[in-house]
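As a warm-up, study this chain.
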Amino acid sequence: MSLIKWTPFLSEFDDMDKMFESMLPAVRSNQFGFTPAIDIYEDKDNIIVETQLAGIDPEKVDISIENNVLTVKGESQKKSEVEDKNYYRKEIRSGAFYRQIPLPTKVDGDKASAVNEEGILKISIPKASEVKPKKIKIQKK
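Now compare it with the structure written out below.
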């Protein structure tokens, strides 16, 4: 049995909403660029953020951290000699991208590093020292 979302008001506008949702990716790719997907995880000392930026020049990507918010922005340019009218399908995205990610814990942004490996941008941000777990050894008297 599947669940059906119940919306008591404006149910007659559902079809219109579905139409706009289906058009939204096309509108975004042509006017607003795209939003790269991200993975965020942590190890003992760092918060790691990974995003796919295949085909994007790393020199044209800006990364900044302010108030525990990571900002990644840049631009993807598709160089093609084919005119738009000859396309049967156009799904490769190009244009500007901008992504702000609130980090899950306090970090030391001054010590962050970034590496681009095979189209994957990997940003490693050390956790702030007050966040790291501290072991306290019991002393004998």
